[in-house]
């Protein structure tokens, strides 16, 4: 899988071609606000490398996914929702509701999410 996909909207954000409200960035991870927020806090945390879905992850990416969760946790804490709680979601393919095929973790908080299902 190529590191960057020129047709991928999130790769465009990572490259700086498409503007975003970026909250966090390091060598391998970026986090920005979702353009269509489903909660008062709705941030997307993603790897800079173009990995389309969870199905495409290799064992060597386990650490990367762990670091993404830690970035999400720290952003939730910084937004003041850690104690009341928040939701981390990764949609996978059609039935999972994935629209953008660049792996991303949704961080949703600031309201009660209720039970799933
Ligand atoms: P998913 O359904 O899991 O693939 O979620 C994709 C999310 O990406 C959706 O909540 C809207 C968001 N999104 C789509 N295009 C853009 C964009 O250009 N900028 C930002 N910030 N978010 C976007």
Description:
It is a single chain. This protein has 117 residues and is an alpha+beta fold. It has one domain: HIT-like (HIT family, subunit A). Helices cover 24% and strands 21% of the residues. It contains three helices and five strands; from the N terminus they run H-E-E-E-H-E-H-E. The chain has a five-stranded antiparallel β-sheet with strand order 1-2-3-5-4, covered by helices on one side. The protein is globular, with a radius of gyration of 14 Å. The chain binds 2'-deoxyguanosine-5'-monophosphate. Residues 9, 18, 20, 32-36, 44, 91, 97-100 line the site of 2'-deoxyguanosine-5'-monophosphate.
Report helical residue fraction. 10-25%
Let me know the largest β-sheet.
5 strands, antiparallel
Shape: globular
Describe the oligomeric state of these chains in a short phrase: single chain
Strand content: 15-25%
Assign the CATH architecture. 2-Layer Sandwich
CATH fold-level assignment: HIT family, subunit A
Q: Could you say which small molecules are bound to this protein?
A: 2'-deoxyguanosine-5'-monophosphate
The CATH top-level class label: Alpha Beta
Number of domains: 1
Counting DSSP H or I runs of 4 or more residues, the number of helices is 3
Task: Catalogue the unreliable spans.
Answer: none
Rg calculated over all Cα atoms: 14 Å
Distance between the termini: 34 Å
Compute the average pLDDT: 97
Largest sheet strand order: 1-2-3-5-4
What structural class should be given to the helix and strand makeup? alpha+beta
């Amino acid at each position: 899988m190529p590191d960057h996909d020129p047709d991928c909207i999130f790769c465009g954000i990572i490259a700086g071609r498409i503007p975003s409200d970026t909250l966090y960035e390091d060598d391998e991870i970026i986090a920005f606000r979702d353009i269509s927020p489903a909660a008062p806090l709705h941030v997307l945390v993603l790897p800079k490398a173009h990995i389309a879905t969870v199905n495409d992850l290799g064992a060597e990416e386990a650490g990367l996914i762990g670091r993404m969760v830690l970035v999400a946790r720290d952003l939730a804490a910084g937004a003041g929702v850690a104690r009341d709680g928040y939701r981390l979601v990764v949609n996978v393919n059609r039935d999972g509701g994935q629209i953008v095929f660049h792996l991303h973790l949704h961080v949703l908080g600031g309201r009660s999410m209720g039970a799933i299902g």
